[in-house]
Structure prediction request, 154 residues.
Amino acid sequence: MAQRFGNLKVYFPNLVFKIIPDARLAKNQAAFRVPLNINKLDIKDYLTHVYNVTVTDVRTTVFPGKLSTNRYTGQKERSSRIKKAIVTMKEEFEYPKEADTDKDFGGLELKYETLRRANKLKGWRIRPSVEMMALRSQVLENRKTAEEASTKKA
Prediction:
């Protein structure tokens, strides 16, 4: 049976732990933005079982929401609170590389579609501009290389 530290049973985690890069931390520490309803033991349990990391210490702080004025009503409003966890691990922690949105998440296709829709809303004929043609060719090249890679694997 797996060792449990916290109260939550995590089978298919729907918790969002956002990594916050911080140069002031030691090499074996990482900062995360975590949900407000999670305690230190749950954070340790989550990181240990989902990412196979040996956690030695967890420190948490809850930051109050920022105060701002509503420009329509003039009333003071407070944004939602934020919980930050600083986790100390046995091993050194290396921040993951930032994802390339154009390649990894279909960013080029999204740019092409938004540009096409914007042109259509303006009443333009569906005659592509130079920018649209360049985007379209990049999208087609990406699709072609992805198809070639999938056929090589199969």
In short: The longest strand covers residues 55-63. The longest helix spans residues 130-153.
